[in-house]
Design goal:
The protein is of the alpha/beta class and about 170 residues long. Helices cover about 40% and strands about 25% of the residues. The chain has helices at about 15-25, 60-70, 90-100, 115-125, 130-140, 150-165, and strands spanning about 5, 30-35, 45-55, 55, 75-80, 105-110. Strands 1, 2, 3, 4, 5 and 6 form a 6-stranded mixed sheet that branches.
């Protein structure tokens, strides 16, 4: 089985998760940024990762997924600035599932990542009180150092589970 682990990462959070997943993949495998991927034809299993942006997949990832994964065996992983149990996360993940609805989706992993200071500053100036609340949480240090080792280990476990499903 030939596996691809590809990702979009603006701040390094998603790349860290991608590296953890890649480390669990046995056999023939490739790793790289999504912007460098031209075709998925050579792969039996594709892990695609990206940050959540405006309540759904990063725009570049969403476009790539919607145009390239139909009929492919795929697992999605994503990072976001909120704790995994935040009330909005379920909707974000539903948007990710929808983007990959034409694929054979073997799994979806999400975890909190540290929010970049420029994004925090932008959110603090937002008119929307919900966005300002996200900015205030980031400014208070919530999410600092994420994804931490426990989240990285969960990503590794996710990779092992997906690989087991793909082998069935």
């Amino acid at each position: 089985m030939k596996t691809l682990v590809t990702y979009v990462s603006n701040t390094g959070n998603t790349r860290r998760v991608a590296e953890a997943i890649f480390g669990e993949v046995p056999g023939e495998k490739e790793f790289g940024e999504l912007s460098g991927i031209e075709s998925l034809e050579a792969y039996d299993l594709i892990f695609i990762g990206f940050p959540i942006n405006a309540g759904g997949p990063n725009p570049a990832a969403k476009e790539f997924i919607e145009n390239n994964v139909a009929g492919k065996t795929v697992a999605v992983f994503t990072t976001h600035g909120a704790p995994e149990d935040h009330e909005d996360v379920a909707g974000w993940l539903a948007a990710c599932r929808e983007a990959a609805s034409e694929a054979d989706l073997l799994g979806l992993f999400d975890c909190q990542g540290e929010v970049d200071q420029a994004i925090i500053d932008f959110l603090l100036k937002a008119d929307d009180p919900k966005l300002r609340a996200f900015g205030e949480a980031g400014a208070s240090g919530e999410g600092k150092g994420q994804p931490d080792e426990s989240r990285i280990e969960r990503a590794r476990e996710f990779a092992r589970e997906v690989i087991a499903k793909a082998g069935d």
